[in-house]
Amino acid sequence: MRLKGILISVFVVLVLALSLAPAAADGHCPQEGGTFTIGVDTFLPMDPNTAAHDWTFYAITNINSMLFRIESGQPVGDLAESWDISEDGTVYTWHIRRGMMWHDGNEVFPEGESREVTAHDVVYSIYRQYDDESSIMAADLRNLFVSAEATDDYTAVLTLSGPDAIIYDKARGLTFTAIVAQEAIEHYGDDYGLNPLGSGPFEFVSYSPDEEVVLRANEDYYIDPCLDEVIFRVMPDVPAAMIALEAGDIDWWGAVTPGDDVGRFLDNEDMTVINFGCPVATRLYMSVDKAPFDDVRFRKALSHMKDGEAINAALRGPTHVKGAGTAGPGVAGYVEGLYDEYHSYDPELAMSLMDEIGIVDSDGDGWREFEGELLEIPMFSWNSDPAPDYVAAMVDAGAQVGLKIRPEIADPGTNNARRIDGEWGIYLGQGWCGEGGTNALWGRNGWISTLGYVDEEIFSLLDQSAQNLNEEEREAQLQAATTRIAAIYFEPAFGFFNIFTVKNNYVKDFFGGEWTLNLVTDDHNVWINEDER
Amino acid sequence: MADSIVELAAGSEIAEQIRPKSFSYIAFQQFIRNERAILGVIVLLLLVLAAIFAEQIAPYDPYKTNYANVKQPPSAAHFIGTDELGRDSFSRLIYGARISLVIGFLVSAVSTTIGVVLGAASGYFGGAIDMIIMRVVDVMMAFPLLVLAIALVAVFGPSQDNMMLALICVIWIWPARLVRGMVLSLRETEFIVGAKALGATETTIIFRHILPNVFPIVVVQASFLVAEAILAAAALSYLGLGAQPPTAEWGSMLSNAKELMRILPVMSIAPGLAIMVTVLANNFIGDALRDALDPTLRR
Amino acid sequence: MKKYIFRRIILMIPLVFGVTTATFALIHLIPGDPVELMMSNARQLTTEEIDRIRDKLGLNDPLPVQYARYLTNLLQGDMGDSVRSRSPVSYEIMQRLPDTLILTVTSIVLVLVFALPLGIISALKRGTWIDTAAMTFALLGVSMPAFWFGIMLMLIFGLHLDWLPTVGQGKTPIEFTRSLILPSVTLSLILLGLVTRVARSSMLEVLGLDYVRTAHAKGMGVRRVNFRHALPNALIPILTIVSGQFAGLLGGAVVIEKVFGWPGIGRLAVDAIFGRDYLVVTNTVLVFAIMVILVNLVTDILYTYIDPRIRFQ
Predict the structure, then answer these.
(1) Does the complex come out with an ipTM higher than 0.85?
(2) Which CATH architecture group holds B32-58+89-297?
(3) Do C30 and B254 touch (CB under 8 A)?
(4) What does the domain layout of chain A look like in residue ranges?
(5) What is the pLDDT of residues B34-45, one digit of tens each?
(6) Which residues of chain B register pLDDT less than 70?
(7) Strands A80-85 and A155-160
(8) Contact yes or no for B235 and C147 at CB 8 A
């Protein structure tokens, strides 16, 4: 899934690379020191076994070394300087960088008494995730895992039972495996996540839940970090965080920036808007094994009765991207033109489709009945912006064609519980750009689906693509799945939105986060221009 | 000295004339002489009228979306602009009066009724009933009520009705405590003891002697509970636990306006002001009622 | 006296037990469980994985078993682990409790510093414009949604004037104080109006009492009478109000911590309710309850010092 990363707005990267390359290339910092404050909406303890959470991984990937990092969607070396993959894609040989030391000056390794990170630590970290069945180790890797062994101190070999096409994918495959020290895990036990210890560019200093995490530069790292300190500040109220960002109280908002704010920040000369590079679909899905949703014409009617494109544009502002399917432009499996072909606004068509199935208003009260009873469809959604607005838009669109839609908005927990129970109704869905979303909907490759989506051809396309290392073939398989889903299953679509993050311009040489947050690498060394602050 | 002469001279006729209207008449007199009370009543009447005739007053359908016209600033066509779905905020504000008033008065009325019944039973009968009711009240008093209401809404599922139910579940303890205390002290007063001695039934005692004495104070408290309920409902809606979109309700409008706070501050200001005016009118009335009805305050 | 306090503390135990049981029952009535909630994160779990995690967390046991286990552990001082963060609940609570206490205590201090003088002055200057202005201000205060007031403050002082930080908590003492201003002012609004009004009316009441009149009649200076005799007696109802509203203040803190990103226990409780983090909810509510009960206890003890008559009851 290398394509996914190309999603990073090439333009932004280019501009940044051109303007900042000299600083990084010289290997010294234009300005030393300073604190980089990152605002996030939530934060979890930093144990790579439990923290299936982007922002928390931003901290983990600076405290711990990873075998590789993700940069512009591609894997680049980190603890593994390089690696070889066997012809059949089942054996990965990782060559470990020499001289990487565990952080010292803590309870586990007193100052000056640290030791080198070796291939044995890599093996330990992989097995720690594999052996803990409740760990977040990605299902694709768990299913394919055969063994991990250290052939010498600087060579680790990972053997799989089949090729894993998503081993470098964000939040899949090996990207979960941060390298931890056995001594630290044993010393802290269950509290390890509160006292993480690694070999990355920054050392852990303190963790105050729901408040902040403080890291300081690791002076023993193989590259000298320009920053003195990195702080993750937890701000659950996003509008308030946007004010803080503008006021310079935080330097980068690492979580998703709402569409309207992106518009404002685009106009702000002191801010840079960074495209995360993975458009996320907003769409409806439903229990397709239950009437009347089992009739494709009804699903079609649901799609055509609403002006999805206009709704999406209004609610997502400048982040909005037209399209349909789970993969957006630039993501593997994206098929152009699906929206116009299957989801265009056509209330007349929607009404005639419903008439056709016998969903008609026979008692003249303005609302349609189904099998003699008022058809009142619950629409489930979670309660944070802008989800409730999509519901409001659907209720209004339904009213225009005589279809009664009842909003059922709940906190994410309740909403999820309903979906898992497969409650009858329509669900607002979003997230997992690309095949993650498709797999989730169809219950493949470690995802579960409770909504009755069953189609052997789609199953087989998804399963094949998950193990196909040939990018062109993979792309074709995913596109075939997407097209078939659009034509036969009709998941009513609104469109995509781009995820943007926003930084203050005095933060230099910084290009945003993609699961691994690369502040100090061979190509980048983030620094703060205090004169501009 | 002079007073007693007049009293003696006037004899019992005048006293008889005054007496039937004494309490409520004086209370009414006192109430209408209070300028704030009048202001409060006028504002509340206007709000009630707006709520009843929302269809006629509101310039637009509050639920009609218009994607070509979203996030407009205030203008002649849209007094306080349009929201993220292009709906007219002013029309939504007017419809919102309906819901806020219903929430306020319904929650207050129901929880006061429950509170009076349980409080009176607890105070009058004492014993096991009192013991059970008061332990429940004690336990509930130890919770921050908003946290309890949040948990209750989470149990029932977030919706406007469930929010009202949750508020009733937590608010009834105030009138209950108040009424219990009053009944306890009334129970021992001479006229009740006397009535009992004369063979009055319990029903008579409760309905003829106790409740009428409790009533004025309960009305005063109920008027303040309207204000409390509206404020609590706004907080719950702000957390996404109250009226659900697309309902035009002030608290959820505020919650909705969060995202647009800096682009369209008017969307945050207007519903907040509407809540404040409604609550203020209620508090004016509550104050005036207390001055008028609470005999202990009348000096 | 000692006996009285001892008896009160003994009486606390069934109350605390009641609160814990009620919360435990309530939170388990909410549909959905924490493991299902985890699925909204980056990755979905398979059904077997979900079941394994439930087993590991003991969520597959019958409720009474879970409750008994909770109580046994609690008596040994172990509050269990948070499902969401997988760290000990006691740690999470202790991390945040001081922040909530600082916020609420600062608000109470603000209330006393502003509302007391305001109420007393308007009582002394009854009927003047000062009285009218103070009472209007007090009424406005109790009529505003506090979180809305907070947002307005944030817009004005945080963004437009840029005087104060908008969210979060400062690290250095100066920054900390600055970041405390907006949330504590917002929270104090909940009590400000009420206390001003109570201060005024109880001062008025005391001024009308016989012994104050007597003191005046005896030719004592007005100021002396007011502050020596009237004020201390007017304080009792204020103490009652502040302690009686303490739970309300904690409830208000829940919303305000959320608005201002203040890392307090209220926010923890709400997030945990939404996250079905059972043990965190039960234990935070337990801590809330203990705080409220303790405050009431301390108030009752204080009464006996301010007003010796109470001791004989």
Answers:
(1) no
(2) Orthogonal Bundle (1.10)
(3) no
(4) 40-276+501-528, 280-497
(5) 888 899 999 999
(6) 1-23, 294-299
(7) unpaired
(8) yes
